[in-house]
């Protein structure tokens, strides 16, 4: 039985392939940083394997160093992630390999804390991938509990028209800690 839907094929559009191990094509970039209680630094590293502005979406692999803490937040789009290796806490819930989290638009999750061996994730944001946060107290509490100091977020290059919003939340957290 033939479908009544038109065929959406575009003859000059083809699949795009990348591989987690292709460092020279898609590099790992640091997107979050902290100073740990022992003086060492930890980071969240991301490999943006697909970032489109029309339609807008972002697919990425992420590696979090051991003990890395990320604020409670949501995104300006639906977001899904899967734990590939290691573990992290999402709020009070321990999430290990195979854990899938669906974050509907308007929901938030976290704060997060990577386990002793760190965590590796695969994530997709189906729309504007930038995050929002309205609970700086949760971040301040977990940083204090673990003796961690949040460091400035490393610079990132976003596609034209997207402003980096990360410093807005850091400023709110710092203001409340004074």
Secondary structure tally, helices? 2
- What general form does the structure show? globular
Please trace the helix and strand order, writing H or E for each element: EEEEEEEEEEHEH
Number of domains: 1
CATH superfamily, please?
A: Jelly Rolls
Annotated CATH topology: Jelly Rolls
Derived from helix and strand composition plus strand pairing, the structural class reads mainly beta
Give the integer mean of the pLDDT values: 91
Number of strands: 11
Low-confidence stretches: none
How helical, in percent, are the residues?
Answer: 10-25%
Through-space gap between termini:
67 Å
Largest sheet: 9 strands, antiparallel
Please tell me the CATH architecture by its name: Sandwich
* Strand coverage percent: 35-45%
Name the quaternary structure: single chain
Task: Round the Cα radius of gyration to an integer and report it.
Answer: 18 Å
CATH class: Mainly Beta
């Amino acid at each position: 039985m033939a479908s009544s839907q038109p065929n959406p094929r575009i003859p000059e559009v083809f699949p795009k392939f990348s591989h987690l191990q292709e460092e020279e094509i898609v590099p790992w970039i640091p997107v979050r940083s902290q100073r740990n209680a022992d003086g060492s630094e930890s980071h969240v590293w991301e490999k943006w394997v697909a970032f489109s502005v029309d339609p807008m979406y972002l697919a990425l692999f992420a590696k979090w160093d051991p003990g890395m803490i990320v604020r409670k937040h949501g995104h300006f789009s639906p977001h899904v992630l899967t734990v590939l290796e290691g573990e992290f806490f999402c709020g009070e819930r321990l999430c290990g390999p195979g854990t899938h989290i669906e974050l509907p638009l308007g929901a938030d999750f976290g704060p997060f804390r990577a386990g002793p061996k760190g965590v590796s994730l695969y994530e997709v944001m189906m729309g504007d991938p930038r995050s929002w946060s309205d609970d700086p107290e949760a971040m301040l509490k977990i940083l204090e509990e673990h003796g961690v100091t949040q460091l400035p977020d490393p610079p990132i290059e976003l596609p034209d028209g997207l402003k980096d919003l990360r410093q807005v939340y850091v400023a709110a957290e710092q203001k409340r800690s004074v």
